[in-house]
Amino acid sequence: MIKVENLTKKYQGVEVLNISELSIPKGQSFGLVGNNGAGKTTFFSLLLDLIRPATGQIHSKGVRIDASEDWKPFTSAFLDESFLIGYLTPEEYFVFIGKLRGQSKSEVIEFIAKFEGFFNDEILGKRKFLRDLSKGNQKKVGLIGALIGNPEVVILDEPFANLDPSTQIRLKQLIKSETQNTHTTFLISSHDLTHVTEACDRIVVLEKGQVINDLQTSTETLKELEKYFSESLED
Amino acid sequence: MQIADFLRLEWQQFTRAAYFQKSLAIKILMGFLVLYFGVTALLIGGLIYFIAEDAAPNVDPLVTVNNLLVIWVALDLLLRYFLQQLPVLNVKPLMAMPVQRTKVVRFVLLRSLSSFFNILPLFLYIPFTVVLLVNDYNPIQTLAWFVGVVSISFSINFTNFLINKNNTLFYALLALITLGVALNYFGVYDPRAFAGGYFYALFDKPYWVVVPLFVMYLLYRSNKSLLLNGFYLDDLVAKKVSLAEDSDFSWLKRFGPVAPFLENDIKLIRRNVRPRQVLLVSFMFLFYGLIFYTQDIYMEMPTILVFASIFVTGGFLMTFGQQVPSWDSQYYKLLMSQNIPYRQYLNAKWMLMVFGVLVSFVLSLPYLYFGWDIYAMIAAGALFNVGLNSFITLIGGALNRTPIVLNEKAKAFSNTSGFNPTQLLIGLPKIFMPMLFFYVPYKLISFDAGLICVALSGVLGLVFRSQFLSLIERIYKRGKHKTIAAFAQES
């Protein structure tokens, strides 16, 4: 689904990302871990053509991301609050996103009705503007918004941060069921090793912009990751 | 924490603000602007004495100026209500610090005095007072008058914060001002002279100066107690939470694929403070013509009148349009990663701008009072606005990469941050093109030919609409990454 070749990104001459080769097959849930400054958000921003690569390229379903916009119809993302429109209510936001993705209002309403439990009665029907919701509730809206319109690639930056424990568990289940049922490819970054190993089939560890580990998730993965991150403390 | 520490924080906030960290060229330009306003105010302050003397040779110029002062006070109050905000939000990080509340509050209030709105009157009053002293007015009396008017100015500062929290007070004041204007208009009573009497009393009987001083102190106290009582996260510092209104936008469906964008833009304007300010400014532009159409000198210079006519219907078009991608800066990443055709995005904004011109044109009907020639001129200007100015403005907007915080009032001077040399260059044709289009055929053929030429230029713009949109689209695409990076920065 996604192929990365010789991808580098520099800021003021300093290299912040360097991925020589990486491919993510369709339907995989791909987890990205790494400390602050490892390049996770940079990588996701490159995947969305929000920043320009210094060298190299990314192909998504054969479309070169920095050369064409044809990846947009099947890609969706929630990176941060700048993906929310503060003066809309959650419903209006979902319908707006839906319209951009070719969905009618009734289709969108039917779709979000499935997530009543996820929203925990705090989001729908309250007529509150997104800017007035709590950080956690804003995040919930952004996450569900990213699922509207049957995207094939969903990119989520730190989806577990700021969520309450029940919603974190729900989100894990949601990611699992979506990858199984609809073969959606998920790209997820996280600082929470437990959640990300549970939600993802594959974990890639970034450090200072380089891929230093690439694991298929197994019962051992969590231990291995914890060992890696505590070792880096001792250096 | 001492006052000096507060001051250092303020200074850092000022010099490190994104809009200040611009290129040298913009700093110089801003410097010139500040200088321009400062010098203009100084000149007015220095010359008004002689102007008053000229206009009413038999009256003491101080009396004439005092009679006009109430207009300035009313204007000042209105301007501040819409533009000046109490800087309370900076207080949040200090709330949990070991600093006494009274100290913070006192600082916030005193700091508000350093606002542009309080410095400008000083630039007017100081030179005027100097002129009075030079003209042998009694120094003690003059000084009392000066202290009096300055404390009135500061009182307005504090009143503004009170009425900003309380709409009833604002409407009461607005009603009072309207009443005054009406009384004056129908010749029942002249509140200017009435107020002027009070202002003159400051000079005549200098001990009266204690009244404005005391009022200022009272207002300061009530602000202080208001702030002290509201020094909690859920009070003053908290933003007001409002609920969405029920509205039906299904009528927009007829606009096809543009509809979702139009719907969003309408919500943008209705639900955010900044765009509402723009609406207000565009409304004021409607009255721009009055400045020119009422002067006999301008009536003989129709080219200048064309300039005014463009502004009568173009207020919304220009104020809204020049910030076009910036309105969406807070969620620009979303738009850029969604499947959005620029064409439809731009089309929606263009339609909104055209709608603004049409509404302004309808509202400008009373200008018929000045005759058909003027009204035809406004109509020709409206066509130019719709057909050409709209696109020029959108091109200028595409080059403007200043983010906008939608739900906060504009700070004084933050508008200048949208200033860049390219935009200035693009702004020039907006003003000079219609004047040129009019001037040449007017001189060669006739007045009517000039108007037809202005109108035709608008029609021509409409013919090439698709080419214009493609051009703007290209600018958007070329600047995409730069724009995203610029909008990601806090303004």
Polypeptide structure, described:
The complex is a heterodimer of chains A (235) and B (491). With 235 residues, chain A is an alpha/beta fold. Chain A contains eight helices and ten strands. Chain A has helices at 40-47, 90-100, 105-113, 116-119, 135-145, 165-182, 193-199, 221-234; strands at residues 2-11, 14-24, 29-33, 55-60, 63-64, 75-78, 153-157, 185-189, 202-207, 210-216. In chain A, the strands form two sheets. Chain A has a six-stranded mixed sheet, with helices on both faces. In chain A, strands 2-1-4-5 form a four-stranded antiparallel sheet, with helices on one face. In chain A, strand 7 (153-157), helix 6 and strand 8 form a beta-alpha-beta unit. In chain A, helix 2 crosses helix 3 (105-113) and helix 6 (165-182) packs parallel to helix 7. The longest helix of chain A has 18 residues, at 165-182. The mean pLDDT of chain A is 91. Chain B has two domains: 3-229, no CATH class; 250-488, no CATH class. Chain B contains 22 helices and no strands. The two termini of chain B are 27 Å apart. The interface between A and B is medium-sized, with 32 and 30 residues.
